[in-house]
Amino acid sequence: MRVDVVIPALNEAHTIGDVVRGIPRPPVRGVTVVDNGSTDGTAERARHAGADVVVERRRGYGSACLAGLGSLQPDCDVVVFLDADGGDDPSWIPRLLEPIVAGRADLVVGSRTLGDVEPGALAPQQRVGNAIAATWLRVRFRLPATDLGPFRAIRRRSLDELAMADRDYGWTVEMQIKAARKGLRYTEVPVPYRRRRAGTSKVAGTVRGTLGAAFKILGLLAWHDLVKPRAS
Question: What's the whole-model pTM score?
Fold first, then answer.
């Protein structure tokens, strides 16, 4: 099974090297870091650590993920996504892959809710927003979700079928919504979550980021739940 990793990154020079070096190879074949407009040398440190670097100047988490996907080799079987800030522990990638390798899942999300969260790693507004969105996914989409965490693995063929489109904060929840609609086999694995090792969160660290993420996530849930079914 050919596994490739995509890491969106914006001004994460202090952490990206450790993240890339911490990725176990095997089972991972290749690592692509998507520089989303960094000004601090993130790209150079990622290359020095052994990653391929793709530049995506259009800002946005989803834009970075889409650019990373576009650069992968066509024979990729599974794509793993994780953040560049050191919050996700890359040594847990083999556990994230287990349900896919065993043929039990198409999409596996690393659940911070079910795992051990280091004090201060998740802001109160993140916990509340995550709980609301996960509850909506369970009740309205029948997806057994507890988290919208970015640390996840998905079969490349399944991901292509989802036709991902969101270019901003809604990437993770869009994937879960569409996975539910498509009937993908979904499961979660408890994962640890650590405080970011440097800098400020692009989402929880600012009022603009927090409000923007909440608006986009809840808006996507409402659209796919209430509007799109009526239009189709």
Answer: 0.91
